Amino acid sequence: AQKITQTQPGMFVQEKEAVTLDCTYDTSDPSYGLFWYKQPSSGEMIFLIYQGSYDQQNATEGRYSLNFQKARKSANLVISASQLGDSAMYFCAMTGAGSYQLTFGKGTKLSVIP
Amino acid sequence: DVKVTQSSRYLVKRTGEKVFLECVQDMDHENMFWYRQDPGLGLRLIYFSYDVKMKEKGDIPEGYSVSREKKERFSLILESASTNQTSMYLCASGTPGQGTDTQYFGPGTRLTVL
């Protein structure tokens, strides 16, 4: 079974600063995918970034980067230059080999302060 | 851009009613999913479909059924709505084997059962 743990229920960050959202995972699959999603108060789940377990480089998408440490089973999301529009819930999720199902963490609520 | 649409953003139904939630995607994805999201419980998979007329149970299929007659459309059916089915329902679609297995979500339907 797969498990995602997000230990930070809530985070505050000053506008224009960087912030790291923590995610650890547990799986016995040798091949898996790691994802981050953003959910604003409107409710839509927005895909941000993906990291494959065999990818050598950390994934980046604009202001988002994924700090992948395989030995530690961590996949932290780094948001650079925070904006007010970044205030939302952030979910870490994963899929395993041969499984279509996404396993989600409980989420972290990020609040960006002007 | 991937587009996943859901028939309603908000829905209010009475106990015992039959409820249909519709989801349409325009990216020719093989896989489609229905999740429900509840505070404190996170996102839980109800059903998914990997092809037309094919379906698989997720973690919480009881009280629900699904239909996929066309590739782009995946319906979630509450045969006899109950108050404990009041929730946020999220549809997603994706294509396996393209290196990411990323799931793209619709805007969600907030269902209230009175």
SSE topology:
The complex is a heterodimer of chains A (114) and B (114).
Chain A: E1 3-5, E2 10-14, E3 19-21, E4 24-26, E5 32-39, E6 46-52, E7 60-61, E8 64-69, E9 74-79, E10 88-96, E11 103-104, E12 108-113
Parallel strand pairs in A: 2-12
Antiparallel strand pairs in A: 1-4, 3-9, 5-6, 5-10, 7-8, 8-9, 10-11, 10-12
Chain B: E1 4-6, E2 10-13, E3 19-25, E4 31-38, E5 42-51, E6 54-57, E7 64-70, E8 73-78, E9 87-94, E10 104-105, E11 109-113
Parallel strand pairs in B: 2-11
Antiparallel strand pairs in B: 1-3, 3-8, 4-5, 4-9, 5-6, 7-8, 9-10, 9-11
Regarding quaternary structure, what we see is heterodimer
Give the largest interface pair and sizes.
Answer: A-B, 20 and 26 residues
State the end-to-end distance of chain A. Answer: 41 Å
Helix-strand string of chain A: EEEEEEEEEEEE
Largest sheet properties of chain B = 7 strands, mixed
Largest β sheet strand count, sense and barrel closure of chain A: 6 strands, mixed
The pLDDT mean of chain B sits at 92
Spatial separation of the terminal alpha carbons of chain B? 37 Å
Rg over C-alpha atoms of chain B, rounded to the nearest angstrom: 13 Å
The average pLDDT of chain A is 93
Unreliable sequence segments of chain B: none
Instruction: Report the sheet-strand fraction of chain A.
Output: over 45%
